[in-house]
Specification:
Helices cover 90% and strands 0% of the residues. With 189 residues, it is mostly helical. Helix 3 packs antiparallel against helix 4. It is rod-shaped.
């Protein structure tokens, strides 16, 4: 029987004691060591789950913030475009207003120049008529050798002015005016 006791496959008394000690250690481990370790592992898992949830929430907030940023940038660009368009519109309006003002000023200056030219032309014609009348009177006085009375002088001036106006139109009436001046002088004499 010694052969049987030496066989390691057959359990003997030490094996049962070892098995009992092992089971006791397992019970002690399960009762006193594993609960705190399980608690620590559960807390660690809860912390990791919370960290993952916080990370997901932060990721969502970051995505929301990025969308908000893009929206704000888009709105700012749109506002910038509208401001630029408004500024361009106002600049074009100002250019058009200045162009209109310049055109009005040009028209005013041209009208004023035409009015000045017309006034100077009238003055020159009046001076020419007066000079022609004075010359006619002087010629008439020399022809008849005496002065004319006021009524005859006025008639002679009117006739001379009419003749000068006719000569400006291109009708030669100078010979007739000398004859008319001689007649007027003869009538007053």
């Amino acid at each position: 029987m010694e052969v049987a006791s030496s066989n390691f496959l057959v359990p003997n008394g030490t094996f049962i004691v070892e098995l009992a000690a092992f089971l006791i250690v397992l019970l002690i481990l399960r009762r006193y060591v594993l609960p705190p370790i399980s608690k620590i592992i559960d807390e660690r898992q809860a912390t990791i789950r919370q960290a993952l949830a916080d990370a997901d929430e932060a990721k969502q907030r970051a995505a929301d913030a990025e969308e908000e940023y893009k929206r704000i940038v888009s709105e700012a660009r749109q506002q910038a475009r509208s401001v630029v368009e408004e500024a361009n519109r106002q600049a074009e309006q100002a250019r058009a207003d200045r162009r209109e003002q310049a055109e009005a000023e040009y028209q005013r200056i041209v009208s004023s120049a035409y009015a000045d030219i017309e006034a100077q032309s009238r003055r020159a014609r009046q001076e020419l008529r007066e000079q022609a009348a004075e010359m006619a009177i002087a010629v008439a006085e020399k022809v008849i050798g005496q002065g004319l009375d006021r009524q005859a002088q006025s008639a002679l001036i009117d006739r001379t002015i009419a003749e000068v106006a006719g000569s400006q139109d291109g009708t030669p009436e100078l010979a007739g005016s000398q004859a008319g001046a001689s007649q007027t002088a003869g009538e007053t004499a």
